Amino acid sequence: xxxxxxxxxxDCQITKQKCLDEWSKVKDVMPNAMSxxxxxxxxxxxxxxxxxxxxxxxxxxxxxxxxQMTVFVKNVWKEIDRMLLTNE
Length: 88
Ligand SMILES: [Zn+2]
What we know:
Layout: H1 4-11, H2 16-28, H3 32-39, H4 43-51, H5 63-86
Helix pairs in contact: 1-4, 2-5
The structure holds zinc ion.
């Protein structure tokens, strides 16, 4: 069963398009091998992978990835916020 963080970031129908757009930007800055591994992950595994910092020590070469991952989470939350305000 998926947790709420997984639902909001990867499964929610309401924010789906935003999630897909932002996630593709994350994948664009991943090393190819990582991007392929991630393609085979479930949404729960993806959420844990990014929440756990790609399961690795801090890697300087991945700074664009850390940045884009932060933008992903931030923008999906902003979209949720926007949707909630719109539906008021
Ligand atoms: Zn939902």
